[in-house]
Amino acid sequence: MVKSRVPTLMRKTVLVLLVVVLCAALTLTFAGCGSGTVASTGQGKVQGKVAANGVVVFKGIPYATPPVGSLRYKPPQPAKPWSGTLKALDFGKAEAQPSGGISDASAFAQSEDCLTLNVWTPKVDKSRRPVMVWIHGGGFTNGTGAEPIYDGAGLAKRGDVDVVTLNYRLGAFGFLYLGGIGGAEYAQSGNLGLLDQVAAIKWVRDNIAAFGGDPGNITVFGESAGSMSVCSLMAMPAAKGLFRRAIAESGALNLIHTTDSATSVAQQLMKYAGVTDVPGLLSLSTQQIVQAESDMNKANPASATVFGPVLDGSVISEPPLHSVAAGSAAGIDLMIGTNLDEMRLWTIKVPAMAQFPLSVVATYLPMLQNAVGGSADAIAASYKSRRPDATDGDVTMAVLTDVMFRVPSIRVAEAQSAKQPKTYMYLFTWPSPTVPKLGACHAIELPFVFGTLKGTREEALTGKNPPQKLSDTIQDAWLAFSRTGNPNGKGVPSWQPYDPRTRATMVFNVDSAQQNDPYGADRQVWDGMPFDGVTPSP
Question: Distance between CA 315 and CA 169 in Å, rounded?
């Protein structure tokens, strides 16, 4: 009897072993048994899921305590621990925001409880990969890190990196300066969005090793307001030492608010909200504040960036460009650049911008008036001399692009290159094939950076068959830079660091190549203009 049972026992043992092995394989490949998609953070375990390309994604991880109730208008507080395993399977809610912005997130559920981040990793292991932390744009009033165009799966897979996207407080929740109204208790309220970003990067530093990332090799990168944020972080004491590299796409340090201007904005907001003090603001619902912000925006259609970083003497103690020039970011490698026709994106909402002479448009845009002063006609004539076939509107668009984006970014590159040799500059010139009048407009490079060329709303700009070669080149440059601080590598044309002598600039197009000082004569028109956010600079 004993002998006859041996084969049966052996078969059962083999069957059990096969089940164990199969379960382990499924765990690693399909997340079927859990451990291959579970990471242990300082707050507790999180459960992710496997994306279509095999990358593991964790969505909606809290990196701070929800900034609600008495924490509205207060700096972020550390996230509280949770018991069990947090199911990080869905994106967190977007910050509450008005609809209709340049990065409209109205399709997403919204809340003041928005301080979450998302992680894409090739594998939950101990590989210590480079980490890329994305800060979304949207004029400091709109957007979310969950937008499909920012899907990090492709970038993570292509470069064997961990990619993080995050939400931060926006508009009247993240950049409403109340220090002049509510006193010292609210001295930092004008920069809460930036402090949220700092809190998120700290969380990444402290926890990314659990996702296979290297906390000592973090690159922050962003576009538009996200790029302005990146540049601001380079100057902020609170962000010192948190990241090693920075990539700034279409945004610099020329839109810094003074406490006087920021207080004026706060007073306007309270007027539209029907309150007169901070307790009144705290008593309002989320939607009431969003509505007040929306009403204020409608009343100021020509204003550019009503909300944004504030020179508050606390979070930001001096104009950030001055800090960078003094060496605040000397240890940070920088890649910075812009698109050739940035301002043309705004002609979708305000077509008249591309139809009128510079002098006329300047009367409606105080920032432009500050830059051109009484020289609008002479500046327009200078630009026109190099564009004989350009209309008055074309000239206006070129000047606006340089005033708002390109030359301010050059100023950052000039300041940083004097302190950090690993400073690189680019110019993206590939034009929209579907809307030719927009050219290489603001934000058109984003799907090329993330490799999200299909299935996002940007297809309206890039068309159904955008050049994959251009995306490959840009992704390889961004990935190489995030790994070593040098964008050169396989598939990337030779690219020299930027300095004020040669002004080496990578010009990205289907066939990319380095040029020295592209559009240099236009740049020289602005010699002597600091573009540092201080009068008379816009």
Answer: 15
| DSSP state for residue 534 in the 8-state scheme | S
- 169, 369, 178: which is closest to 262 by C-alpha? 178
Q: What is the DSSP string of 272-315?
A: HHT--SHHHHHHS-HHHHHHHHHHHHHH-TT-S-SS--B--SSS
- Considering the candidates 95, 112, 342, 458, report the single residue annotated as catalytic: 342
- pTM higher than the cut 0.85: yes
Catalytic-labelled residue, pool 95, 227, 442, 445: 442
Give the model confidence (pLDDT) of 52-65 as tens digits. 899 999 999 999 99
pLDDT tens digits, 290-333:
999 999 988 876 565 689 999 999 999 999 999 999 999 999 99
Cβ contact 380:390 at 8 Å? no
Task: State the sign of the Cα–Cα–Cα–Cα dihedral 137, 143, 149, 150.
Answer: positive
State the DSSP code for 78.
Answer: B
Nearest to 45 by CA among 34, 54, 55, 31: 34
Task: Read off the tokens for 303.
Answer: 């204003």
Rounded-to-integer distance, Cα 367 and Cα 255, Å: 9
Backbone angles phi, psi at 78, to 5 degrees: -55, 150
Can 224 be counted among the known catalytic residues?
Answer: yes
Question: Is the per-residue pLDDT at 279 higher than 60?
Answer: yes
What pLDDT, in 10s, does the model give residues 414-452? 999 999 999 999 999 999 999 999 999 999 999 999 999
**136 is a catalytic site residue:** no
Tokens of 227: 């790029």
Task: For residue 356, give the DSSP letter.
Answer: S
Distance of alpha carbon 519 from alpha carbon 524, whole angstroms: 9
Q: Identify whether 442 is a catalytic site residue.
A: yes
Phi first, then psi: what are they for 5, rounded to 5°? -85, -15
Q: Are 95 and 168 in contact (CB under 8 A)?
A: yes
Question: 103, 189, 224, 232: which is the annotated catalytic residue?
Answer: 224
Mean pLDDT score of the chain = 92
CA distance 91 to 492: 34
User: Where does residue 220 rank: exposed (0-12), middle (13-18), buried (19+ CB within 10 A)?
Assistant: buried
Rounded Cα gap, residues 409 and 492, in angstroms: 22
Mean pLDDT of 95-118: 90
User: Distance between CA 432 and CA 466 in Å, rounded?
Assistant: 9
